[in-house]
Amino acid sequence: xxxxxxxxxxxxxxxxxxxxxxxxxxxxxxxxxxxxxxxxxxxxxxxxxxxxxxxxxxxxxxxxxxxxxxxxxxxxxxxxxxxxxxxxxxxxxxxxxxxxxxxxxxxxxxxxxxxxxxxxxxxxxxxxxxxxxxxxxxxxxxxxxxxxxxxxxxxxxxxxxxxxxxxxxxxxxxxxxxxxxxxxxxxxxxxxxxxxxxxxxxxxxxxxxxxxxxxxxxxxxxxxxxxxxxxxxxxxxxxxxxxxxxxxxxxxxxxxxxxxxxxxxxxxxxxxxxxxxxxxxxxxxxxxxxxxxxxxxxxxxxxxxxxxxxxxxxxxxxxxxxxxxxxxxxxxxxxxxxxxxxxxxxxxxxxxxxxxxxxxxxxxxxxxxxxxxxxxxxxxxxxxxxxxxxxxxxxxxxxxxxxxxxxxxxxxxxxxxxxxxxxxxxxx
Length: 428
Known about the structure:
Layout: H1 7-17, H2 41-53, H3 59-69, H4 86-99, H5 105-131, H6 138-141, H7 147-157, H8 162-174, E1 178-180, E2 183-185, E3 206-208, H9 216-227, H10 235-248, E4 251-253, E5 256-258, E6 262-264, H11 265-270, H12 287-301, H13 304-318, H14 321-326, H15 336-349, H16 352-367, H17 376-386, H18 394-403
Antiparallel strand pairs: 1-2, 3-6, 4-5
């Protein structure tokens, strides 16, 4: 099934329902609303920025939402992260400035200084932790709360900066093993559960493979930086190390390669982990995010075999009824919109035959956003009623629908925060 209308019509319909930041139906009094890229104002502002850039809706709406995002104090430093506070707001302002050069310059300069200072602080703390032989927290390095996500912003705004070089150097060191008692663990092994908190189900911690919270996020950043000519000592070897790890835990199924979301200590000792074909192939943890990260790595390493494998992996996952059946929501994070978006991004960088196959699959994935054919307005109303935000809500679905359409701004890097942005265009 495909949408019986243009996918950008759905994006416009969502934006029209979210036209005003002071709409009383929105959670305007919630403390996270103003600064949360994942759930609140910045994510919705991002949708309006991209629609304005595509000349589908007025810039004034984007400016109104950005004004709402900057109407109060902005969280910086240790209490901020790529999806909350200064980095989250800066990402959206940078997208607006890319489409309207010269706008928001003073605000971006102030935010850039704060983010660079925070990056240096975080890197220094991470090196001290490694020097002490301690295991990291997920929030130290991941894409959502950690240095992979902060590095994605720096790559976009300050590619030649000392701060980005420090982040990349830290990620290189993160791939080096750490000794925990009598065992040698990957440098990104964490003592917590996947939630980032202590978990009795993970008594020996775990190694997280995901793009949102695991090692695939650093892999994507290291690869994207290399593709933009930003390389520090050991970076190529670090990319290869992560690819080797993912190769070690790859399970070849009849539906193509699959990866466990994470590896436990008993699985590491046994060198074996079960993988279930019914897991969803999402951006955050699943095959789609891992395939994109490995495609970028292959391009950075000029590895034609790995590139073909990564691209073929996504094709097979998206043709597998079991994996598609496990995808039960429309979201960008772990739903149909995310799959369509990644397929679209990977197709742009793929070998010709695979690009054509992915191009056919994208409309089918978008069709799942309105399975009953209710039309853009009704589909948008259902999405907004469920959640208005970026990662799991209507704004993210709309952005994916827009970027997959012919109306989208094809040089846009709105998804740099997801580490899925196109490698062919400078992230400036």
